[in-house]
Amino acid sequence: MRWFRRARSPQQASPGATIEELARDHREATTHEQRAVALWALVARGDEARAWCEAALRSGDQARIEDAAGVLRSIGADGAVPALIEGYAALPDGAARDAVVEALPAADRAALLGSETARSASRVPEEIWFIEAPFEACAGKYRSWLGGRYSDHRGTLFELLPLLDPPVKPSWKTLLIETASPWTALIIQSFSGASSTPHLGRLLGARTLRTSYVEGEDVAFWLHDQAGHELRTLQASRQLAGWSWEAKGDPQPFEDLSHYQARRIAQRLDLDLLLDYCRAFGIARDAPGFYGPRALLHEQDWHRKRG
């Protein structure tokens, strides 16, 4: 939407041109200047340009979608919100998608981004460990510590996750992923994570953090110090006999202790509070863009033989 950010006067286009003629001028523009003049002329037509904007939003052409969103941002998106949301859902991350978000009225934008955040949070793994050490250090120490097969990978979080086995298939894989922070993320497909990860942290002289969120069943925040000792454990989990609450260790400065007084155990540690605690360490647990691109996949030898 660079044309929108430039100071351009609508009067540069022919004042007598029809919407169809302006659409043709935009379609046939060969320079940025020509394109900007046509778009500002459409802005000057106000409501008359809405039909062109909605058609452009549904065209599948990212450049046209970006331009139409820019026009709507100027004249108002009244009546075009459904088309904007449809365009958003169909677009990849990029300038066109950003332009669509900017064109939405504030309330619709907040609702859309809020639902996207919730969907992203639900798509990240239920349990993620973090080690307070750079990816290179974690990957190097892991390779020298455990036998098995290793492979290097690059990608976004959702491109890397398929390297792991489906939850219903027994496995013994660990995926180490760099993050946009001093912490490295580990996704562990075995029952040994509770003991092996703090031990790896001890080898690195680094703190470790276990985070878990299974909706309606479990929320956990386990912090270990550089020696692998439990520093703080918070967990609300549903057992056969009902919900149980565990709080061990000294409260940390970032904690909101008032939450732990809630009568319902499930409210003492919820997803929002877990994410707040992670942010206190610079960890954006629910943000897919926080992870990657480098990753190391570890497979135990027995998994390779039975795979």
Highlighted features:
about 300 residues; alpha+beta; nine-stranded antiparallel β-sheet; 13 helices; 9 strands; about 40% helix; disordered N terminus; disordered C terminus
Strand order of the largest sheet: 2-9-3-4-1-5-6-7-8
If helices are DSSP runs of H or I spanning 4 or more residues, what is the number of helices? Answer: 13
Q: Mean of the pLDDT scores?
A: 85
The coarse overall form would be elongated
Cα gyration radius (Å): 26 Å
- What is the H/E string? HHHHHHHHEHEHEEHEEEEHEH
Query: What are the segments in which pLDDT stays under 50 over at least 5 consecutive residues?
Result: 1-11, 118-122, 303-307
Q: How can the largest sheet be summarized?
A: 9 strands, antiparallel
Total tally of structural domains: 2
Structure classification: alpha+beta
**Tally of extended strands?**
9
